[in-house]
Amino acid sequence: MLSSGASPVAPWPRVRWGTVGEVDPRGESLLDAAERERLAALRAPARRARSLGAAVLMRELLAEVAGCRPEEVGLDRTCGCGEPHGRPVPTGGAAGWCVSASHSGPFVVVAVDRQPVGVDVELVRDEAPSRQLLQRVLAPGEEPPLGAAGFAALWSAKEAYLKALGTGLSTPMASVRVWGDGSVSAGRGAPRGWLQELVPSTPLPVARAHVCRLVGDDLRPASRVGETDDDAQEA
Asked: pLDDT digit string (tens) for 81-101?
């Protein structure tokens, strides 16, 4: 189980871990028609399982914090272009909440909050990142991370921020800087975010994950992520 902290001003987002094998296939009944159509279009079984896992965990966690049933939670994914591939916006019984989900390999992680939130999990690759990839990710003057695990951690931190920002990878990662105090920003005028590395009670070397919340400098969240009432499903 993740440690939890309390803050009367800005507690951390609620987080839930899962693995693909733990997701009940019957959870597909929670999806709306458009989601089921997109799921059916995914040919690779692993991709379908990860997408289904994220959709189910989002509804389950949103239902818990909103005090409703998962069946009452909707997810509007309408993008600015009008297509249904934007970031999920809770509707129905969970309207007013913010949610983010990520999956990599067998792992799925979801975060919900009242403020814009982003979460990302990345598998640790067998090889260290190439120079070209580092140039795409590192901000000017930013120190290169140590090894593949350090790179996965840096990537997950920056992508979690970009997801909270709402731009995703359309914003260059090299414009994002992670600071030593746990904050993250993307240049003048961009909102500041606060990061927390997600660490299960039995840390595994195969993945790194971060959650990011956009808040003001005077509203830094508590020191640890707020876990759901039941045990975290360790990734």
From this structure: 766 677 899 999 999 999 999
